[in-house]
User: Fold this.
Amino acid sequence: MSAPVTELTMPYWADMHAHLRQGEEFSAALIAEHLAGGTDILLAMPNTQPPLATVVNGEWSVQGYREMLLRNGGDAFSHLLVPLYLSAETTPAMIEQGARSGLLRSVKYYPPHGTTNSAHGVPLEALIGSDVLRAMEAHGIILNIHGEEHGLPDHRWFGQHENAESILYTEKMRRLRDSHPKLRIVCEHISTKEAVAFVKESGSGVVATVTPQHLTYQVGNLLKGAKLHLICMPLVKFGADVSALRQAVTAPDNAKFFAGTDSAPHPSVKKAVDCGCAFGCFTGQYGAQLYAEAFELAGVDLSDSAHAETFKRFLCLNGPAFYGLAPSKKTFVLRREPQRVLPTIAEGKTVIPLPLGIVPEAERGDVTIPWSVLL
Assistant:
């Protein structure tokens, strides 16, 4: 007799870091992807072109962009959050306006030129002690931080013993935290043991999102075969880093680490160019399944009820709780049976999801992942 198939019935989950891009048709296709994967709460990043550097008034404001997403299928989410892009033009008055309007729950920090559409970011040292961060403290606005140091010499940017993320967390993040003790911080898509240690040592106001790729892959997976669809910022790291991330998210008492896929779609033609590569791994509708697989790789038996509860908190509960949101009232099923992975066609462009992107193009016809979603 075959063993029973593991099924997890959980609230629709919360992706607290994703990219829905721009262009109504393109964004609509991405929204449909997330909804098909059981996402009900989503935080959509503001690094559009131009960036969402104002709260209200205009197409490229938090308000205008969110309205575009809502009319293209985003109204199906129970909560759709959009942060303000933190730039040199951000003011305390803007923060107060956003807080009072109810439109603003968080502000996103990008290191200058550190990732896609981040040229309008400002150096972190210019923010520490600033009136903008004081206003965020006063109004309870969260800081979402892309935690990598900018402007490093090449030899320090990426290595096993130091890299752009570890340098920021060891050299600057404690000063930021201690200078603004009431500032609530989400350390986005952390990838290093140093970032894990920082979050653990900090109080309840400092938390982190973790992506499926950073829980699953190491730099060797990226370099062997030059897997361009696994290139994201921050890059996947080394074994000790993956182990630290896995221990953090699977801890029975975890309340500080939660799901944020950083699902970052780029047409496949932009992932392979003469010089450079568009940064980002696209997970789309496969995020929950990939997280379940990552927990299994960490040695977690999801058929065990206590372990399943830990997974549910990571995927569905911890993120909304930090943002002051109720979890979804709807439920879906994650089932331990294979699901076929297909490319996404958005605005006539092909976008390759992560499970397809790590296999050679000639072998992408019948790729499956171990878990499937039933809505």
Summary: The two ends are 28 Å apart (CA to CA). The first helix runs from residue 24 to 36. The chain has one domain: 7-374. The first strand starts at residue 7 and ends at 11.
